[in-house]
Write a structure and sequence with these properties.
- Helix 6 links the parallel strand 10 and strand 11.
- By secondary structure, the protein is an alpha/beta fold.
- Helix content is about 30%, strand content about 25%.
- Strands 22-23-1-24 form a four-stranded mixed β-sheet, covered by helices on one side. A four-stranded mixed β-sheet has the order 2-15-17-16. Strands 4-5-3-14 form a four-stranded mixed β-sheet, covered by helices on one side.
- The protein is built from 14 helices and 24 strands.
- The structure holds ligand EPZ.
- Ligand EPZ binds next to helix 1, helix 5, helix 6 and helix 12.
């Protein structure tokens, strides 16, 4: 198993190119099921989650390859085994996203329930409610969702809001199924994340008729069939946010290329309030922190609110602020596995339910720590860049799920991260 050995504190400088978005690529890969033939997806990063999604599509019958431009080619002409196996879906929850497309294309799907997750309870009741409203008959059997449409799916009005607001992958699943349903579907309280906008744009390029894209009300006129496409996924706003925090926590200046500030205005606003400067430039920005880190209050919300996928990274940053900050996690109330690990690095954090009081400290001290999930592990890497001494991060496989060889991206900027196999 790989570990990271990180020497700190360091200062960073230079520029880094932001990769394509994991959370846009995964549902768009599933969407190729709807369009029999060969689709070409550009900008799909090399991540373990992408490989697992590829494995899942491969088991359905799809043929996957990378061409000389490193584009991901998915040939979905033949799908002869509409089953999403537990052994794969348990490794990548986004695998649930094949349910809607399989149902729409085949009228039948068997997909494993995703199972438990380190960041907390992650039900799929809204996914199932949406698909049932479109006419699917759904029952659970041996941990599998069995979904069938005796007659084809029929367009309907669906309210998709849940206890924590909209659902990203739930919206994706129902949106994809509705593209081939008979008649008009209206999804109310749809997720508005840039990744959902990207999925809807990809579907429209395949021949779907979706309007209201980017708003909480999506309208879909069902069509008879979709065709394969060539499509470039958007840059990864969560990766960009992570690199922004890397510059901020090390009092450095960095240039981010291929970064869409327009997709991350809430994040940029928060960083500026913390004392970080961000100047848009060409296809990216220059980010720098020179003065002290100011405290800030953060409440995670569905887009365009502050993303839960940057909560851990900002907690690491605010642990070095001059003063107290309050972090409230409203999307995944238990998403605090990083709190105990940052505390091991001398952060002063007090957790009360879904609230963490972050009392800023002068410095972080290196320690051996344990990665528990993707974004928590990113926060530990960022803390390691600023901490005094050698930080050891165990279970690095978590970070490989969402960041492509992060040490190879940070070390040229001045970081000292060594991957070791123990
Ligand atoms: C997506 O997960 C992202 N994953 C997550 O990123 C991200 O944290 C999350 O959206 C929120 O932004 C991908 O895109 C692959 P949700 P998703 O359904 O769609 C509740 C990362 O780090 N809910 O929007 O699974 C749910 O429990 C990952 O890259 C229901 O109650 O999240 C949560 O509290 C981690 N019933 C809230 O809604 C449902 O049927 C939002 O979850 C579905 C969700």
């Amino acid at each position: 198993m790989d570990i990271f050995r990180i020497e700190g504190p360091v200062q960073l400088s230079g520029s880094v190119k932001i990769n394509g978005s994991k959370n846009a690529a995964l549902p768009i890969m599933a969407a190729t099921i709807l369009a029999p033939g060969k689709s070409t997806l550009k900008g799909v990063p090399h991540l373990s989650d992408v490989s697992v999604c590829g494995e899942l599509l491969g088991r359905l019958g799809c043929k996957l390859s990378r061409n000389q431009n490193d584009d991901l080619c998915i040939d979905s002409t033949v799908i002869d085994n509409p089953v999403g196996e537990y052994e794969i879906v348990r490794r990548m929850r986004a695998g649930i996203c094949i349910l809607g497309p399989l149902l729409a294309r085949y009228g039948r799907a068997e997909v494993s329930m995703p199972g438990g997750c380190a960041i907390g309870d992650r039900p799929v009741n809204l996914h199932l409610k949406g698909l049932q409203t479109l006419g699917a008959k759904i029952h659970l059997k041996n941990g599998y969702i069995i979904a069938e449409t005796p007659n084809s799916l029929k367009g309907k009005e669906i309210f998709m809001g849940g206890a924590f607001g909209s659902t990203v992958l739930g919206t994706a699943n129902v949106l994809m199924a509705a593209t081939l349903a008979k008649g008009k579907t209206v999804i109310e309280s749809a997720a508005c994340e840039p990744e959902i906008i990207d999925l809807a744009n990809a579907l429209n390029k395949m021949g779907a008729k979706i309007s209201g894209i980017g708003s909480p009300r999506l309208t879909i006129e069902g069509v008879r069939q979709l065709h394969p496409v060539e499509f470039e996924v958007i840059p990864d706003r969560i990766e960009a946010g992570t690199f922004m925090v890397a510059a901020a926590i090390t009092a450095s200046q960095l240039r981010l290329e291929n970064c869409r500030l327009n997709d991350m205005m809430g994040v940029v606003d928060k960083l500026r309030s913390i004392g970080v400067t961000i100047d848009a430039q060409d296809d990216g920005c220059v980010i720098a922190r020179r003065g002290t880190i100011k405290p800030a209050d953060i409440t995670t919300q569905p887009y365009p609110g502050f993303p839960t996928d940057l909560q851990a990274q900002f907690m690491a940053l605010l642990s070095l602020a001059e003063g107290n900050s309050v972090v409230i996690e409203k999307i995944f109330p238990d998403r605090f596995m990083h709190v105990a690990e940052l505390t091991r690095m001398a952060a002063n954090l007090r957790k009360e339910g879904q609230v963490v009081i972050v009392a800023g400290v002068k410095k972080l001290i290196a320690a051996p720590v344990m990665a528990s999930d993707l974004r928590a592990s990113a926060a530990l890497v960022l803390a390691g860049l600023a901490a005094e001494g050698t930080t050891i991060i165990n279970r690095v496989y978590h970070i490989d799920r969402g960041y492509e060889r992060i040490e190879k991206r940070l070390n040229p900027l001045g970081a000292k991260i060594f991957r070791e196999n123990v």
